Amino acid sequence: MKTVNLIATSLIAALPLAALAEDPVDPKLYEAAYNEDGRYFTDDDVPTFNIQEDGTVDWLTFSGFRRYHAECHVCHGPDGEGSTYAPAVKNSSISLGYDGFFDVVVNGRQNGNSVMPHFGENRNVMCYLDDIYVYLKARGLDALPRGRPAKKEAKSDVIREDENACMG
Amino acid sequence: MKKLMLLTSGIALCAGMATANDDLVSQMGDSTQWAIQTGDYKNQRYSALDQINAENVGDLQVAWTFSTGVLRGHEGSPLVIDDVMYVHTPFPNIVYALDLKNEGKIIWKYEPKQDPDVIPVMCCDTVNRGVAYADGKIFLHQADTTVVALDAKSGDVVWTAVNGDPSIGETNTATVLPVKDKIIVGISGGEFGVRGHTTAYDMSSGELVWRAYSMGPDSDILADPENTTHLGKPVGADSGTNTWEGDQWMIGGGTTWGWFSADLDENLFYYGTGNPSTWNPAQRPGDNRWSMTLMARDIDTGVAKWFYQMTPHDEWDYDGINENILTEQMIDGEERKLLTHFDRNGLGYTLDRVSGELLVAEKFDPVVNWTTGVDMDPASETYGRPAVVAQYSTAQNGEDVNTTGVCPAALGTKDQQPAAYSPKTEMFYVPTNHVCMDYEPFRVSYTAGQPYVGATLSMYPAPDSHGGMGNFIAWDNINGEIKWSIPEKFSVWSGALATAGDVVFYGTLEGHLKAVSADTGEELYRFKTPSGIIGNVMTYESAGKQYIGILSGVGGWAGIGLAAGLTNPNDGLGAVGGYAALSDYTALGGQLTVFALPD
């Protein structure tokens, strides 16, 4: 949360038209209010990222970077920036909201020959949905630059246990 | 010539042999036509036409253009048979027949109905590498794996066959090989845990004749334990399962989405298999045969004559599907039937295509660093294997470790974009990528029809080089040497064409069609087409005039990473925009541009 000012200015360039019409993104939508076993949440209990002064990212943001670049990147391009045939998704965490984001990933959607598949049965995605969500949120707000996060918090035991339970 | 052709087909008929494609063989022998995607069965992509030559190519002009009506990546090229041009598109895989004697008027248009659910199970865009021709029919292998035979005159459907199941991730991007009385086809889906296979259909009826899997029991892979060889030795029983742990081979990859070549005298056809799945090597211990393998199989039975596995136990996604170019050349004072292959792994291989003997294996980009080279000593235990450098081994570094600085990147020193060969210069003209990567494998679970990748990677231009992401090179396959190299800003993702006019053509991702000297690589001509080029250059002659044709339409694998530009994580945080973004140079399109000399 080092530079709210910086974030606010970059929003003008980064956000889609729907969001542009509004004021800059309400910090309540992304600021981490509390942390449970290495997972961060906003005041409204929505998962979010946490990036320290020295660039250290929370585990979920790092994990989201990895899973994004395995599952999403072949269509949506590196760092959520889009490809020649699929849209940039770095702003989708904010523009769709948590529930909307969840819905599109689980159920997919179609717009002509542009088709987002449904990942509802894919554990490589579903077990990491919060991770991908907070990673893209950090990217969309330019809180996280392009590329691999250099420093990360350790994976907590609870996160590890949950992951093992989910992946089976 | 015409008489001889008639005579040949007469003999064939009398003998009752299955030679339904005498028509295609004679069309391929006639340089005024472009009858097959690969130029000929040898995949040389060489034309004997020389009206356009090194002296006059600088005067080239656009003769006519055609919009395909489809955006997304346009790979492959049109065909020309008897003054009709056949143009295909990416999904939905439209085919147009254009009348070259009537200003390209559309004679017929075929648009298949395909379930759009196939789109998201295609890795890396909805490309298609073109139609094939034989026996008065046009053959299209659709994205949803339906193989269609169309009447070349009317566009009417003659037969269809369903080759795979998109609901488990089986799709198609490749062209087909019409050879003798068969249509031989491959399958895509290595990133979805598909077990690769190659299948022959009867050319006249569409009935399945044989199918050869890339891994599995001997009866599936059509290997003969005694007579199928690997580097001169029998492969033995169960070679398609005994280098796998458990049942992993059943979702083992080794898909077959590349090009086919054929040698009718040997009755063999050639192709390569793709990566073993997943991308996480820890989940599939062993050599994972026969992924990453060059294969020579009998055209009639599909039984393998020889295999050569280039990258045992892949750790980097170096699919072995690139084209195999057949030549007859002197090597060590003896003329031999050769096969030359530029692999994703960065090594240029020359083999004896009759025996499968390995003759040359050398890096065709000096930055290749994952291996120190291939063991060429037949007496050695590791004969034919690449020596893996531990620092760049994602398997040795293990799961959840980010292996950095691996060259080439997963898209390979060269992907499917086919090279050309000129018998005049005895040089190969090779479009290449000059990109390196960081690669971190991790655990994934398999769900049918869902991506099954298991690694995250970031790619960037080769460090300490010219800063660009590609080169266009000339290669000597006998000595294993680069003769000249043209640096390019982006990966060269376009198939090359060499001609008797001593000119070599290729396209760039910015959208340029370029002509260079076959001898020196000196640029002789360039023209910027409406969109980036990932198609292959072709040539034909109509009414005594030579034309050059190229499809524009950026996309494919190249459109993923390059659209937004690559970043180098080693440059530290915030080094965004340090490298060129393709979106600064070109936008989506779908257009054919045809060039000719002024009258």
Describe this structure in words.
The complex is a heterodimer of chains A (168) and B (599). With 168 residues, chain A is mainly alpha-helical. Chain A is 45% helix and 8% strand. Chain A has 7 helices and 5 strands. Chain A has helices at residues 4-14, 17-20, 59-76, 92-107, 123-126, 129-140, 157-167, and strands at residues 34-36, 39-41, 47-48, 109-111, 114-116. The longest helix of chain A is centred in the middle third of the chain and has 18 residues, at 59-76. Chain A is globular. Chain A starts with a helix and ends with a helix. Chain B is mainly beta and 599 residues long. Chain B has 5 helices and 40 strands. Chain B has a 6-stranded mixed sheet, with no helix packed on it. A 5-stranded mixed sheet of chain B has the order 1-34-35-36-37, with no helix packed on it. Chain B has a 4-stranded antiparallel sheet with strand order 2-40-39-38, with no helix packed on it. In chain B, a hairpin with a 6-residue loop joins strand 4 and strand 5 (95-99). The longest helix of chain B is centred in the N-terminal third of the chain and has 14 residues, at 2-15. The radius of gyration of chain B is 22 Å and the shape is globular. The chains are: A mainly alpha (168), B mainly beta (599).
Summarize it.
Chain A is mainly α.
Write the layout of secondary structure elements.
The complex is a heterodimer of chains A (168) and B (599).
Chain A lengths: L3 H11 L2 H4 L13 E3 L2 E3 L5 E2 L10 H18 L15 H16 L1 E3 L2 E3 L6 H4 L2 H12 L16 H11 L1
Antiparallel strand pairs in A: 1-2, 2-3, 4-5
Chain B lengths: L1 H14 L6 H8 L16 E2 L13 E7 L11 E3 L2 E5 L6 E5 L5 E6 L21 E3 L2 E5 L4 E6 L5 E6 L14 E3 L2 E4 L11 E6 L5 E6 L4 H4 L7 E2 L2 E2 L26 E3 L4 E5 L20 E6 L5 E6 L14 E8 L2 E9 L4 E6 L5 E6 L7 E4 L11 E3 L5 H4 L5 E4 L13 E3 L4 E7 L1 E7 L13 E7 L8 E7 L4 E8 L8 E3 L3 E5 L4 E6 L5 E6 L9 E5 L2 E8 L3 H6 L29 E6 L3
Parallel strand pairs in B: 1-34, 15-20
Antiparallel strand pairs in B: 2-40, 3-4, 4-5, 5-6, 7-8, 8-9, 9-10, 11-12, 12-13, 13-14, 15-16, 17-18, 18-19, 19-20, 21-22, 22-23, 23-24, 25-26, 27-30, 28-29, 29-32, 30-31, 32-33, 34-35, 35-36, 36-37, 38-39, 39-40
